[in-house]
Amino acid sequence: MTLIHRLTLPKALTRLSPLLLAALLTACATTAPPQAEAPSAAPPPAPTPTAEATPAPEPATDAAPVVRTMAAELLEDNLRPGEKIDLDAPDVNADLWARLRGGFQLQDLDDDWVRKAEAWYSARPDYVDRMTDRGSRYLFHILEEVEKRGMPAELALLPFVESAFVTHAVSSTKATGMWQFMPATGRDFDLKQNIFRDDRRDVLASTRAALDYLGRLYKMFGDWHLALAAYNWGPGNVQKAVARNQRLGLPTDYASLKMPDETRYYVPKLQAVKNIVLAPDRFALSLPPVANHPYFLSVKIERDIDVALAAELAGLSLETFQQFNPQMNKPVILAAATQQVLLPYEQASAFAENLARHNGPMATWTAWVVPKTMSPSDAAKRTGMAESALREVNRIPPKMLVKAGSTLLVPRAAHVVDDVSERLADTAALNLAPDAPPLRRMSVKAGKGDTIAGIAARYKVRAEQVAQWNKLGRHTTSLKPGQTLVVYTATTAPAVTQAKATPAPQAARPVRVAKATAKSSPARKAAKVARGGKGNTVVAAAAP
């Protein structure tokens, strides 16, 4: 489309007040750079003076044309700069499913795997209803991005396979979001992951990253089926499978490669979804109507705001608000990192107007950088929180210390004016350390008559631990004179002079204690020796 449409506003948007216009409600949500955004709104017109009030510098009658001019920018489609959304235009009210069908390009698969997937979906009409209903919120935006890149429209259906369009989905392998990004892959495509937000769940950012990734994979393999296999299995694995077939003189298409069943089933599942979209009646299924215009708007925010307050101002339940803005990890949205929230049309206008009218605090939370390593109880005292509340909101497990430089979410004091900085919003991390004294590694030589029980008692560990960790028999009791023992303990080593004065009951001569060393992490050393020590080395650890 290249024509600039006449703007026809929904009813909710025709009632916009000057306060609403000051909230900078922008268009269909997008991650476009600043130069692609709609022009900023002008300041709201002065209020109409009363009889007692001093007349405003400019006549109130000038407000109406200003309002109309500013309202004309509210539905600017940033995915197609310069064009306006005309909600009365025939193509806007057409069925988006028909537009999807018209963009299908991939070569069809037709095998037993496809039949299996079709049967699975056909047997679960309620599941398909929920899945397509969720997908209807995001399909317009995804299809716009797919078409903008000249990609096959089938790619817009991929979240049906990946997550059933559950924006907060997490797999057993920690793949997250609608497009199921692994942590490392997400970072490769600039999806921020920190204590405040996880952009793998962000509708706009994850869609941009997923299509960037798929485009890269297509350039690598020159085949969309192989690109999809690589999206699921990893490009390195697909390259190896292709190379193997090349060595054997076999075809290298998707159906000919040796791959895990999950990947073998992956593209056929997408084919099954495509077949359902093409002819839902054939499978006794139905698709919800989806209009060919944005389902949601983006509303710019300029100050930190609590998630609960944002949902309240939008007139949405917290759960519904989070379906559109699922990337938040904490109960506060930081404006420095999340400049906009996504909301349905009606709720977007209500949010903008209520936000402009809101006079109370916007955010009751802020970020605090821990100045030194401390316990959660000390941190709670410093910030005026209950320890249980601090642990819960920051997800601090028991028996852990908060390391210096970590960032904690804490109550925002009334005198705090500044919002969280962009640097902190993007780099905040929580680093923890065990809340226990460090274990010391000591080498000990057993004396004549020394036993496992005696050594264990001397260093306050259990005899069965010593035997188990050092692969000694259950009934082994004595140790060879001069045998070297490595002991990990928080207890200070007994002095040699003390050992002479008070020998162990069965010791014929004093125990010689070698110099304690701590060249590496005690826990790692203990684990390494426990996996299989050499010679006569014996390992002990402090009792819990």
How far is the N terminus from the C terminus? 70 Å
Rg calculated over all Cα atoms: 32 Å
Shape: flat
Determine the CATH topology of the largest domain.
Lysozyme
Any guess at the CATH architecture of the largest domain?
A: Orthogonal Bundle
Biased composition (Low complexity): 49-61
Signal peptide: 1-22
Keywords: Signal
Organism: Pelomonas cellulosilytica
Helix/strand layout:
Blueprint: H1 11-14, H2 18-21, H3 63-71, H4 96-102, H5 112-122, H6 125-135, H7 139-148, H8 158-162, H9 183-188, H10 203-221, H11 224-233, H12 235-248, H13 261-278, E1 296-300, E2 305-306, H14 307-314, H15 318-324, E3 332-333, E4 340-344, H16 345-357, E5 365-369, H17 376-383, H18 387-394, E6 400-402, E7 407-411, H19 422-427, E8 432-434, E9 440-445, H20 452-458, H21 463-469, E10 484-489, H22 496-501, E11 512-513, H23 522-530, E12 539-540
Helix pairs in contact: 5-13, 7-10, 10-11, 11-12, 11-13, 14-15, 14-16, 17-18, 20-21
